[in-house]
Amino acid sequence: GALLVSERIDREELCGALSPCSLSFEIVVENPLELYSGAVEIQDINDNDPVFPSSQARLEISESVAAGARFPLESAQDPDVGVNSLQAYQLSANPHFALDVQTRVDGSKYAELVLEKELDREEQRELHLVLTALDGGSPPRSAQVQIYIDVLDANDNAPVFNQSTYKANVRENTPSGTLVARISAYDLDDGPNGEVVYSFSSHTPAKVRELFALDSATGDLRVKGQLDYEETKLYEIYLQAKDKGVAPGVAHCKVLVEVVDVNDNTPEVTVTSVYSPVPEDAAPGTVVALLSVTDLDSHDNGLILVQVSDVNDNAPKASQDSYDVYVLENNAPGIPILNVSATDPDLGRNAHLSYTLLQGDLTVGHLFSINRDNGTLYLLASLDHEDQVEFNMMVRVQDGGSPPLATNISVSVFVTDFNDNAPTVLYPHSNTTATYTNVVAPGTAAGKMVTKVVAVDADSGYNAWISYTLLQATDPSLFSVGLHSGEIFTARQLREDDPPEHTLVILLKDHGEPVLSASATVSISVAEMVKEVLTDLTDTAPTSDPRRHITFYLILAVILVSAAFFISMVAVGIFKCYKWRQSKELLNSSRSTHYRTPGPFHHIDAVRGGFMPPNFYHQVYLTTDSRQSDLLCKKPFTSSPLGSRQSTMRNGEPGMYHQIVGTASRLPTPAE
């Protein structure tokens, strides 16, 4: 007797909105036969969402609608009944509308929009709201509709000009149709309420309307008649703008048009009085006539102008008398390095300047060039700081007058150094086959200087500052090198177990950017005597040096020449001695008895003593009574073609080479 559900039951399909919803049935019972009646009540569950007729709604509301106006909205439907049916509405937050929910007689609910704050189309043209319908289920079901509100325009805005006063200048000979000014006004309303029409104000004079025309659509104010500065210098024009609304709004502006004078009037000369005739004896400065000149034009157009012709009386003037230009070496050819500037207060050709480079030095002409018109100095070739550091030149600035005037400007170009040269090792020289071996004695104490690496850098300044570091050594702990001096010292005391031969590789670096470097190899031998080192060098010298024969022959030639010179000098000395002995015998044979025998002479060899040069030689001849006689000295031997010159001296100088002998010539008698 169990009653079962044979298929899914849908209360809304069976009963719709009827509540309660029940199904009746009958049951037949046999043996005994009986008939029973029954009913099943279908209870509602919240299985349906509220539904709006459409997903969005659009309303049109005029901005002139007052606050408090109500606008009904379409209701949502929910097939559920009781608590599960539609129970409430909600409206999205906004500043203008509120939601009022009403209940009908049958218990259903509907919503109305209530305007709380007046709309302004110029502020917001469209509003977007969201209306939500909720049932009473748990959890509640809902539905939404998008509400779009178009704010309709009302003619609540008058036109507005972008400026209250316009100003314009017009020449008096301006042709008709020329644009004077363009006025502009705007209206925030839409449609006819926002369309602007321009016109003259009612109090605009008729004369202005004859001279000017206004476009009602664009606001263009144009010249219509013939303007005359001498008649009216300033026009004050009043204009207005109206919209096309039922009750049109009006705006006003003013246009000030200033007429600019042009030289359209010829001067008028009036003779006030003439004193005629003029006596022939009239003094200079006597008034002959009174004239008056008038011109209807204004300002400069009304003056009588006297033009002064220009004379080339001003030489070009440079902005500075000299220029110092610094150029980095290894520059790219053809670059501009300087712009020489000069001015000339004259006019026309007298002020036209030309620039030339004076060819004082041929080197300057090959390396530099100047633009004749603008004074730009160009460098034609690449410069080398190591070749030449400074260039001096003169730039002549000349005007085009007749005769022309010119000014000379001094330009000095200094070539700044670029680190393009690596250090060069002078000692030990790396490009020769000779071996530079330095000797240090065994047991030498620490701090003893052994040798020195000598190097130069062709660059200058910081680029030529060389630093020395020990790059490689047979025993790195034995020797050290001065960072800036290149001097090699013993870092510790030499021991007996130290190697006898040491090879040091010194790294030389400059301080330029980029850094350039070189290296030097120094050989050091540990030995008691230099002879041991020379023996070692002889043993290690190459046996097949082709140049050693040449050296041998050169040494042999030097020895032979020296021997020949020595033999020649000995022969000359012997010859001189022989001649001297002959002269001495001759003097002894002819010596007179009236004279006293001269004492022994003194020979002072100052030449070999190192006091005087060898060619500084004097011979002195004295009489027997030499204390009252003059010294006759020969000057130093010279290569003069006229032979030796002689001079008389009052006394001898110390340190000179003198030969003192007695003369054999006749001395003056006391009477003489």
UniProtKB/TrEMBL annotation:
<keyword id="KW-1133">Transmembrane helix</keyword>
<feature type="domain" description="Cadherin">
    <location>
        <begin position="53"/>
        <end position="161"/>
    </location>
</feature>
<keyword id="KW-0472">Membrane</keyword>
<dbReference type="GO" id="GO:0005886">
    <property type="term" value="C:plasma membrane"/>
</dbReference>
<protein>
    <submittedName>
        <fullName>PCDGK protein</fullName>
    </submittedName>
</protein>
<keyword id="KW-0677">Repeat</keyword>
<feature type="domain" description="Cadherin">
    <location>
        <begin position="319"/>
        <end position="425"/>
    </location>
</feature>
<dbReference type="InterPro" id="IPR015919">
    <property type="entry name" value="Cadherin-like_sf"/>
</dbReference>
<feature type="domain" description="Cadherin">
    <location>
        <begin position="432"/>
        <end position="544"/>
    </location>
</feature>
<dbReference type="Pfam" id="PF16492">
    <property type="entry name" value="Cadherin_C_2"/>
</dbReference>
<keyword id="KW-0325">Glycoprotein</keyword>
<keyword id="KW-0812">Transmembrane</keyword>
<keyword id="KW-1003">Cell membrane</keyword>
<dbReference type="InterPro" id="IPR050174">
    <property type="entry name" value="Protocadherin/Cadherin-CA"/>
</dbReference>
<dbReference type="GO" id="GO:0005509">
    <property type="term" value="F:calcium ion binding"/>
</dbReference>
<dbReference type="InterPro" id="IPR002126">
    <property type="entry name" value="Cadherin-like_dom"/>
</dbReference>
<dbReference type="InterPro" id="IPR013164">
    <property type="entry name" value="Cadherin_N"/>
</dbReference>
<feature type="domain" description="Cadherin">
    <location>
        <begin position="162"/>
        <end position="269"/>
    </location>
</feature>
<dbReference type="GO" id="GO:0007156">
    <property type="term" value="P:homophilic cell adhesion via plasma membrane adhesion molecules"/>
</dbReference>
<keyword id="KW-0106">Calcium</keyword>
<dbReference type="InterPro" id="IPR020894">
    <property type="entry name" value="Cadherin_CS"/>
</dbReference>
<keyword id="KW-0732">Signal</keyword>
<dbReference type="Pfam" id="PF08266">
    <property type="entry name" value="Cadherin_2"/>
</dbReference>
<keyword id="KW-0130">Cell adhesion</keyword>
<feature type="transmembrane region" description="Helical">
    <location>
        <begin position="552"/>
        <end position="575"/>
    </location>
</feature>
<dbReference type="Pfam" id="PF00028">
    <property type="entry name" value="Cadherin"/>
</dbReference>
<dbReference type="InterPro" id="IPR032455">
    <property type="entry name" value="Cadherin_C"/>
</dbReference>
